Amino acid sequence: MQFNILAWVAGGTGFIFLMTCLGAATVFLFHKKSSPKIQTIFLGFAAGIMIAAAVFGLLQPAIESAQNQGIIAWLPAAGGFLIGVLFLFGLDKLIPHIHPMTNVREGVSSSMKRTTLLVSAVTLHNIPEGMAVGLAFALAAQQGTDTALYSALALAIGIGIQNFPEGAAVALPLRQEGISTKKSFFLGCISGVVEPVFGLLMILIAGITVPIMPWLLAFAAGAMLYVVVEELIPEAHLGEHSNIGTLSVMAGFLLMMILDVALG
Question: Which residues are registered as beta bridge partners of 106?
Fold first, then answer.
């Protein structure tokens, strides 16, 4: 099967970017302060989808790709995963940002406005999501099978679905900071721009040499799971709504698992 990989990656990452914008558009529906309960559900649901996407859409294909190349299957999976974790850990320590739910500042000391720091936090999350979609379609191009293409589509759909609550999770807190509705929407939307950028960057890197594909897939998985464990799950369990946060994580995981099996 032959297909234009650039067109598919542009379409896939464009879709998840659009879903971020649609999520940010919820700021037009909430004229009053949004409920912490709703934000907890949003964050938990996004976390569940990202966990399943990392396991079924990235780590499992990384292992299978390594086996097909005749190399030790766990080595690129474990090595790439660790590098991905360290990569996001490094960005987390370097890029100034603030977590809206905890109001905790991280990264190097900066005089940037609180608004910019809030947007930086979600933008940081969107980097591994763009990488994941780009790599999934790059793998489909290398394998040339319908199954690989459907798996890439399932990953894009799943990440797109979780980007809806993520877009809301950045736009709504901005509105509560006193920023205008239109500007909150714009900033929430623009936080997803890194997804197409890093998606296209990944296919350029993957196109250099096929043997590094298992490493790249595991790298994206490690980066995604770092975001989930470091921020999404902890913030989904703040306050009195921890049970709702837990159920939301399970619901997100279940949905992504079904998508991967049904389409893959």
Answer: 97
For CA atoms 166, 172, 177, 181, the dihedral sign is positive
Cα–Cα distance measured from residue 163 to residue 85, given in angstroms and rounded to the nearest whole number: 21
**Full-model pTM:** 0.83
Q: Catalogue the long-range contacts made by 231-236 (C-beta closer than 8 Å, 24 or more residues apart).
A: 231/99, 231/121, 231/125, 232/43, 232/44, 232/46, 232/47, 232/50, 232/125, 233/43, 233/44, 233/47, 234/102, 235/40, 235/43, 235/99, 235/101, 235/102, 236/40, 236/43, 236/44, 236/47
If you search the block for the tokens 């990656």, which residue do you land on? 9
**Displacement of CA 227 from its chain's centroid (Å):** 8
Q: Which residues contact 167 (CB under 8 A, 6 or more apart)?
A: 19, 20, 21, 22, 23, 24, 25, 26, 188, 189, 191, 192
Phi/psi of residue 106, nearest 5 degrees: -135, 170
Q: What is the pLDDT of residue 217?
A: 92
Instruction: Tell me what the mean pLDDT of segment 39-57 comes to.
Output: 88
